[in-house]
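Fig. S4 source data, part A: sequence.
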Amino acid sequence: MSDSMPRPQIDGQGIHAESTASQTYEPAAPQAYEPAAPAPLGVQRVPTGNAGVDAQLERLADADHLPADGHLEVYEDVHRGLRDALTALDARPAPAPAGPLPSPPYNHRS
C-alpha cells in the first residue's frame, strides 16, 4: 500500500479506513436559497356579466405579482367580495320610491 492511501482497520463492526491527519471533512458552505420570482399562472378570467363578481375576479390578478405569503390577503378580500355579491342577490329589491300620482285621463266628448 502506498503512503497516500489509508490502511484499513478491522473492528467488531467491520472494516473501516484508518483516519489520517490529511483526511479531514469540510462541509460545503451553505448556498443561499433564492425563491423564484412571482409569475402569473396564466389562468384566463371569463367575465360573468355581474359587475361585482367580475371586479372580484379581476382582483385575483393582484396575486399573480405577489410572493406566496401575500396571496392570503388577496384571496380573503376576494372571498369577502364574492360573499357580499351573493348576499346582494338574495336581498329583496327595495320598493320603488313613491312619486306623484299620475293625473287621471280626461275623457272629453265633443
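Fig. S4 source data, part B ends here. Helices lie at 51-59, 71-90.
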